[in-house]
Amino acid sequence: MLCFSAQDYPYPSQRSLTFARRGMVATSQPLAAQVGLDILRRGGNAIDAAIATAAALTVVEPTGCGIGGDAFALVWVKDRLYGLDASGHAPQALSVDAVRGAGHTTMPLYGWTPVTVPGCPAAWAELSRRFGRLPFAELLAPAIELASDGFPVSPVIAGLWQSGLDKFRAVQAQHPELAAWFDEFLLDGRAPFAGEIFANPAQAETLQALAESRCESFYRGELARTIAAHSERSGGYLRADDLAAYQPQWVEPISLNYRGYDVWEIPPSGQGLVALMALNILKGFDFGERDSPETWHRQLEAMKLAYADGRAYIAQPDCMRVSVADLLSDDYAASRRALIGARALEPHPGKPRAGGTVYLATADGEGNMVSFIQSNYHGFGSGVVVPGTGIALQNRGAEFSLDTQHVNCLRPGKKTFHTIIPGFLSRNGVPLGPFGVMGAYMQPQGHVQVVMNLVDFGLNPQAALDAPRWQWLGDKRVGIEHGAPRSLAAVLARHGHHVEVAHDLTSYGRGQIVLRDPVSGVLCGGTEPRTDGHIAVW
Length: 538
Known about the structure:
Elements: E1 18-20, E2 23-27, H1 30-41, H2 46-60, E3 70-77, E4 80-86, H3 96-101, H4 120-131, H5 136-149, E5 151-152, H6 155-171, H7 179-184, E6 197-198, H8 201-213, H9 216-220, H10 222-233, H11 240-244, E7 249-251, E8 254-258, E9 261-265, H12 272-282, H13 293-313, H14 324-327, H15 330-337, E10 357-364, E11 369-375, E12 385-386, E13 391-392, E14 423-427, E15 430-438, H16 442-455, H17 461-466, E16 470-474, E17 477-481, H18 486-494, E18 498-502, E19 510-516, E20 523-527, E21 534-537
Parallel strand pairs: 17-18
Antiparallel strand pairs: 1-20, 2-10, 2-21, 3-4, 3-11, 4-7, 5-6, 8-9, 9-14, 10-11, 12-13, 14-15, 15-19, 16-17, 19-20
Helix pairs in contact: 1-2, 2-4, 2-5, 5-8, 12-13, 12-15, 12-16
Protein name: Gamma-glutamyltransferase family protein
Organism: Pseudomonas triclosanedens
InterPro entries: GGT-like_enzyme, GGT_lsub, GGT_ssub_C, Ntn_hydrolases_N
């Protein structure tokens, strides 16, 4: 079993490994974790806890997620893993010609253009409908209270809030549609300080409307009409018909067997396939010491090759020119592995045979477990807030290409390449538990490192998250955290990597892990030291 036989990481941690028996909620914000635990204590299951926690996170961590974002989930219930894709599609009025006609040569990051149909509220409602136990309104009540009464802002979130303000100030003159964000997400024109109380009454009212309608209001009710009217008045592409047509999709998770453990991801258009491709390359090597130059070099090279393929081939499933099976075939992995030598590569896609985010993990005493992730993409998202609602809309559409020959080219009604990915581990059909590392393109890189820390290097969940991380930054550029051994940077440079030592750790992912002992049922978990991470236990 991964958890109980694993060793600690040799560097000091501020958190110890956490155990529980009846329930566990691991998140990046303590108040949200407590919300999930309270739901478990009231008789809810892991799915109820995940929904309540996710709703609370839109309030207490708006720097990474919001009501106007997307979501994905992997849910283990009754001996089976289910996948939910609640990512949104491009509005019907949004096209390459429309974007180019507005003077853009690439998809912009802010304003109405990158806004896609939000899937987050639909994810909450659908999870509750299929697997929840408590009344839906009861699950959103804690988030409503936090938004209405206010909450003390946690330290890391305060820093990210200021960063978001700085970015929006820089583009405010070019995007008048950002005005409502400045009205609803600041205190006297500034970002809240750590420990300062922030309330969002408008968001509380919106959450109340979602609670009463099981989120129908957002897609086919009064909120939908409010969102569409604001879009039409202020130059947006989103319309009522786009919202009304939206439904989340149940999907079959994809997996790779890595040294006897099944690693599960959401299928494309999510980038979880990138993590599986990298692990498929890496399983052909034998690894000894974790923090050796050879280990990090091989991991980085495998990640580069997987990402090159991911960017070239991953898209909405009906637009992909290569199948998932082809990209995960052993023969193709071997051909990519053969490219890894002593020197750093410039990554290029191969030719297989044709054929600001939050993450949370919950588990209950009955064996149900949820790996859940939701995001507004970049920080607060597009900067567009529907006035009087507290709804901050995502900028996921920034991932679309305007190259008509690209697999991820923008098309009305299409879903873009998606960065947010939940993960899950099992072995021989027995669930071990959820894991995830949020943070844009760091996510599959974090998944690979966490899985290898657990499986190859025998670290326990907390130690697996504490360990210093690497990150491929593009071309031959790689980043390593300042906690890594100093000798690594020098040796990696001699291998041809362009090494950057990072002191700001917020860009190296923020993860959570919950694992369940198959025999005793005891839960053990780890939470992220790079944020205000917390595990609430029962």
